[in-house]
Structures are given as structure tokens and as C-alpha cells.
Amino acid sequence: MRDYVIVSDATLDLPYSIIEEYGIMVIPMGVDIDNVAYNFHPDEKELKIDEFYEKLKAGADTHTTQITPIVFTEYFKNILDEGLDLIYIGFSSGLSSTYNASQLVMEELIKEYPDRKIYCIDSKCASIGEGLLVYHAALQKRNGLTIDELKEWVENHKYNSRHWFTVKDLFYLKKGGRVTSVEAVVGTAFRIRPVLSTDENGKLVVVSKIRGSKAETEFLINRMIKEGEDLKSQTVIVGHSDNLEQAKKLAEEIRSMNVVKDVIISQIGPVIGTHTGPGMLALVFMGKKCDL
């Protein structure tokens, strides 16, 4: 049976140690900072995450770019030419057309490599929600699933990646069209922080609004307790964008509850950080959607 690799993109925001340990291949993504173009790799070899947030807080103008069909073609062909099949788990199509580009490339490469298996899956997830799904896919691969079995597993479980996050500065969301100018001004003035997740179409939605860091922690933990399934066997992920102190407090509180196997803290990279700004706090776990 031919071996295969799991491929994702730089929006997954997993710690590089996990990416390396499980042999996950990650396609870098472009970030422009004050008209200087960078490719962001999980090992930060071209752009350091801390340096990115320092520039962002200093007022840098930042934009992100999608993965082009040319890049997908080159990356996928390199894998196929090594005699490996591949399964790509990509950033939500509700937030980017990157996944659609991968689909077009897959359709062309199947003609060129008719005896090979090339699968592209829309994660319907963002950031560490996508990362959590990829991490669990890697665990399933290590447990012996074939590429066809893993494809089915990911399709069946992608909505079980429950991801919740808050942001500190609403102006970054306003820039991306997620909140109005009035909401941004009022929300920032009164320290109102929106709670966001993704819907069934993988689009970002504001699901609640809270005030203060204590309320943030309580909300995120309550969602984990309500929606999480088999938490005792799970490693959950706390994500943050230049917000390590609060992320550590959230992780410590979860550990003190003794309800999960482990907690990983991961820093949100520049691709997602451009749209959330510094101060984001997130918690992701496997579970099922429940009403607020």
C-alpha cells in the first residue's frame, strides 16, 4: 500500500513541534507588511511571529495573500514525484478561496497522475480549529488509517472541531468587515469583546458579546464543558495572538479542573493575526455544537 502525507496550510496555527513530530506538511502563506512581502512558515524561518505583532502594534499596514494554483501545483507535484499520495486539509472556503484553488489543481493533477490518490478537504475551520482537526487526523494516520479511511474520518468529524475565540481590538474585525464602525468604536470604548466561531458554511460569525477578561475565560471554559465530548482523553488547545499571559491563565485554570488529558498553548501566526489583531484568546476542542 502506497504511503501518504497530510498537507495543510499556514493558517492552521499549530505549534511547530507538533507539525514536525507528526510529519504534517504545511504550505506557507503570504503576508505583506508595509508593502514588504513575506512567506510565513510554521518554523518562522522568514517571519517571526513576535516581530510581526510588534510591527502590527506599531501601526504597520498588513495584508494576507492566498495560495495560488501555481504554488499548489508545485507543492503537490513534489509530493507525488516522491511516490507519495496526499490528503490536503485546507482553510475554510467560507473565509478564503484558497481551498477552491486546491480543488482546481487536484482535478488537473488527477489527469496527470491517474493511478494516484489526491484528496482535498474543506475543513470549514479557521486557525487552531483547523489545526485541531489536522492534529486529530495525524493521530488517526498514526493509528493506521489508510488515506481513504482518513478522508472519510475527516469529512465525518470536521464539524466536531469546536473553536471559540474573543478579540481585544474590534478595529481589526472592522477592517475585515466583520463588525460595523459604530460597533468598533462603542465596543472598544466599553471593553466589549465579541465571541466568534464558524458556522456550518465555515464563515466567521459573532455569537455573543462579553466584557472583561474574567468573562472571557468563563465563557470559553463553559463552552468546553457544554460541548466537549470525552474530554478526559483530549488534548485541547489554547490559542492567543500576543496574549500569552491570559492564555497561560486559561490553560492553568483548565488544568486545575482535571477534566482534560492535556492543554497546549499555541501562538496565532501572522495570517490569522492580521485579521484578529493582538489580544485574541481562543479555545478549541473536539465535541458537538450546542445552543448558547
Mind explaining what this structure looks like?
With 292 residues, this protein is an alpha/beta fold. The chain folds into 2 domains: 4-157, Rossmann fold; 161-286, Hypothetical Protein Tm841, Chain: A,domain 3. The chain is 41% helix and 25% strand. Strands 10-9-8-13-11-12 form a 6-stranded mixed β-sheet, sandwiched between helices. May bind long-chain fatty acids, such as palmitate, and may play a role in lipid transport or fatty acid metabolism. Keywords: Lipid-binding. This is DegV family protein. InterPro entries: DegV, DegV_C, DegV_domain_contain.
Sequence-ordered SSE layout with sheet pairings:
Layout: E1 4-9, H1 16-21, E2 25-27, E3 29-33, E4 36-40, H2 49-57, E5 62-65, H3 69-80, E6 85-90, H4 98-112, E7 118-122, H5 127-142, H6 147-157, E8 161-166, H7 170-175, H8 181-189, E9 192-198, E10 204-211, H9 213-227, E11 235-240, H10 244-257, E12 262-267, H11 270-276, E13 281-286
Helix pairs in contact: 3-4, 5-6
List low-confidence stretches: 181-187
Average pLDDT across residues?
91
CATH architecture identity of the largest domain: 3-Layer(aba) Sandwich
Oligomer category: single chain
CATH fold category name of the largest domain = Rossmann fold
> What is the CATH top level name of the largest domain?
Alpha Beta
Function: May bind long-chain fatty acids, such as palmitate, and may play a role in lipid transport or fatty acid metabolism.
Keywords: Lipid-binding
Organism: Herbinix hemicellulosilytica
InterPro entries: DegV (IPR003797), DegV_C (IPR043168), DegV_domain_contain (IPR050270)
